[in-house]
Design brief:
Length: 296
């Protein structure tokens, strides 16, 4: 052992064993008790004091919906149509239990139908063969066999999760809210009547092309929209609506037989396919009573 090592050992302090044990015990007790100590930095312990103590989040807010009846005439157009585009005149009546929940009815009448570009192309360039004669007896009458929505009615719930203000051209500010809705719809449909190619000659098939069949489809409906309030009792609403049901849009033979033959030579309910039907609507909204409630 050299002299430097001996000198360093002499410089180190010597603690009694009891003192070391006491320090260790105190440290352990401190660590064990620390989780039980209250945290003064917790957000729950922050209390609002002064003139804002107990004040509501928003003062003098206009309550546009709660306890009021909403009447909304409107106009809608179907979207993403394959063969027929419908112009729909709509009317909605709704009562709002709270400012964020309402229950009501919605209805529409498809008073105008327009052929899509695909329908026009089939009428102009469609080719009829022995194999597809049931589906397209005469290309000139193709628009007479396609499916059409005639009317719609729905019972629905409306939820309003968001509200605020919209700035138009950074000068005009209007109150607005965003709403979603969900309900059950009844849809009046017209489709090509059931027909079989068995025992049906060319003249029979030509006559079947314009024969119609009516039925009512029960379907879920849902969507979302935005309402802008022009004053206490008048607003402008835009909505997207979806209605999900199965139907034969084209009036053609789309299914196969159980033995694997395609097509199966018949037009019936087996040729209907599930489809989400889209609609865009704009409406003018009236509220009764005409005066909106203002919060404290």
């Amino acid at each position: 052992m050299n002299l430097r090592t001996m000198n360093s050992r002499r410089m180190l302090p010597t603690l009694p064993a009891t003192s070391v044990l006491t320090c260790v015990l105190v440290a352990c007790l401190t660590l064990a008790a620390s989780p039980a100590l209250p945290s003064h930095a917790s957000a729950q312990d922050v209390q609002v004091t002064g003139p804002l103590a107990g004040a509501p989040a928003v003062r003098r807010m206009r309550i546009y919906r709660e306890g009021r009846l909403q009447l909304q005439p409107g106009f809608a157009i179907t979207l993403q149509d394959q063969f027929d585009k419908a112009m729909v005149f709509t009317l909605q009546a709704q009562y709002h239990i709270t400012d964020w929940l309402g229950v009501g009815v919605w209805g529409g009448y498809a008073g105008v139908h327009l052929n899509t570009d695909l329908t026009k192309q089939i009428k102009a360039q469609g080719v009829t063969t022995d194999r597809n004669r049931l589906s397209l007896p005469d290309r000139a009458n193709f628009d007479q066999q396609i499916g059409q929505m005639q009317w719609m009615a729905a019972l629905q719930l409306t939820f309003v999760p968001l509200r605020g203000k919209l700035a138009l051209f950074q000068k005009l500010f209007v109150d607005a809210d965003f709403h979603i809705f969900l309900g059950a719809a009844f849809v009046g449909l017209e489709e090509r009547a059931d027909v079989s190619s068995t025992g049906c000659n060319v003249a029979c098939l030509n006559d079947s092309q314009t024969l119609r069949s009516s039925r009512v489809a029960i379907a879920p409906t849902f969507g979302a929209g935005l309402t802008m309030y022009l004053n206490d009792y008048l607003g402008l609403s835009v909505e997207w609506r979806g209605i999900l049901f199965a139907w034969n849009r084209s009036g053609t033979d789309e299914s196969g037989s159980p033995n694997g033959d395609f097509p199966d030579g018949e037009i019936n309910s087996s040729d209907r396919f599930l489809s989400l039907n889209h609609m865009f609507q704009i409406g003018l909204t009236f509220y009764l009573p005409t005066e909106a409630h203002i919060s404290e």
